[in-house]
Design brief:
Elements (H helix, E strand, L loop, with lengths): L1 E6 L6 E4 L1 H11 L3 E7 L5 E6 L3 H14 L15 H10 L2 E7 L2 E2 L6 E6 L7 E9 L2
Antiparallel strand pairs: 1-8, 2-7, 3-5, 3-8, 4-7, 5-6
């Protein structure tokens, strides 16, 4: 069972909370025990879990920018000016796996699920949500 959500992004780097989409799909699947995979099929985006607090989201974005600055002598920039986004995506990761226990995502109180745009704005981004029943 899977679902693809589509949306656009409005900033070069931003965190978009997709928790409600993921939780809604898990409820639709009516799976009591299993795994939920959340995957961004993009080389310049990522998926993370963290707290949805505006200051923290800004801190996360600022830290990404400091660790891998937009302007540097990247080889990839000879063909496409977005090496920084590819590198950040590779460091962060494009997939998270969350256990489903008792029909609910086993996430902490402050753990929300975010799509991380690293090369925006983009007209269309996708996230694949897959639920795998287990027991």
């Amino acid at each position: 069972m899977y679902k693809i959500i589509r949306f656009s992004t409005s900033k070069e780097v931003e965190l978009i909370d997709i928790t409600h989409h993921v939780e809604g799909f898990v409820r639709e699947c009516n799976v009591k025990e299993g795994l939920c995979i959340v995957h961004a099929p993009h080389a310049t985006a990522a998926i993370i879990m963290n707290e949805n607090e505006s200051g923290l989201k800004e801190d996360i974005i600022n830290t990404f920018m400091k660790l891998v600055p937009r302007r540097a002598n990247y080889m990839h920039n000879r063909i496409d000016d977005n090496a920084h986004a590819h590198i950040k995506s590779a460091m962060i990761g494009s997939t998270v796996i969350i256990p489903i226990i008792g029909g609910r995502l086993a996430r902490g109180t402050w753990q929300n699920i975010f799509f991380v745009e690293l090369d925006g704005p983009r007209y269309e981004r996708r996230v694949i949500i897959q639920v795998i029943p287990g027991g």
